[in-house]
Amino acid sequence: MITTITLNLALDKTYFLSNFQKGKTNRIKQVHEEPGGKGINVAKVLQALGYEVKVSGFSGGFNGLKVQKLLNERSIPHRFIQIEDESRECLNIMADGNGQETELLEQGPTVHQAKWGELCQLVHQLASQSEFVVLSGSLPKGVPINAYGQLIKIIDHAKAKAILDTSGEPFQAALSEKPFLIKPNEPELMNWLGKEKLSRQEMIRAAEKLLDLGIPHVCLSLGANGALYIGEEGQYSLTPPLLEVKNTVGSGDAMVAGLTAGFLSNLSIEQTLKLGVACGMSNALHLYAGCIKTSDIKSFQAEIKIEKLS
Ligand SMILES: Nc1ncnc2c1ncn2[C@@H]1O[C@H](COP(=O)(O)OP(=O)(O)OP(=O)(O)O)[C@@H](O)[C@H]1O
Ligand SMILES: [Mg+2]
After folding, report:
1. pTM confidence score
2. Which of 4, 5, 19, 20 has the most CB atoms in a 10 Å sphere around its CB?
3. What biological-process terms (Gene Ontology) are attached (predicted)?
């Protein structure tokens, strides 16, 4: 089983309308709701690929209950720690008339210390039943800045493998616990190094530095440019074919799902990386984050160029 942890759950709502006019009354044509947060996106893709998955994290108020209902409808098992504050609602306003997209993102709840302790216990329990635990996304207010580091330790004790996809301080603080796999994108890597631009060679050097810290697998995702893998299994560059994308939000999450699936199924590193890239591509062709078409995955895998660098 794979467990995904979403500490800052979201009810992702999309409003469709013809034109969005600031300062005016706007009538909505259609509303769509998705269970959201990066770990949830990863779980949706893993489930579509046919893997047994469970989601966990903090859930609060009506938005939390709504997310649980949406997960039930998709038959995705969940076990959350209930908190008092309301989980976030993230609103995406899609105006098809002028093609404009406006996002309104709530900050999310504050988590109290006692609830953090409860979550750590739950993660230990779930990790004991899992091969992999995926830690994704930002931290809600109130949890320690090294929250992911603490969870990686717990996951290690439970003899599962931790996969980390986050940014900024929570990323930096967790590295010393040596997660099994990390998947920074280019801005996340630049942020870690405190740089504003990186050449390909510099990206490879940076990933090698991460490897030197004891992280066995580093996969850098580069959007339309594909991915670089620097790890125990060598160095690879992957290039996807040109795509007419709909929405790339969540492509990184889909990639994390594909990589986790590949490692769990003991695929070769080449196949694992291609599965990750193919899932990211398929996500980019869909409007909602964490949605892929499994029938596309095979044909995409055949179209991805993979080159062994060393
Ligand atoms: N425009 C695109 N064309 C082809 N493949 C893409 C495109 N955008 C993303 N992908 C695929 O998805 C993978 C992950 O995308 P990206 O690097 O944008 O992740 P990310 O920034 O972490 O995304 P998010 O955090 O929103 O999930 C890429 O490595 C690539 O394989
Ligand atoms: Mg990402």
Report:
1. 0.97
2. 4
3. carbohydrate catabolic process; D-tagatose 6-phosphate catabolic process; lactose metabolic process; small molecule metabolic process
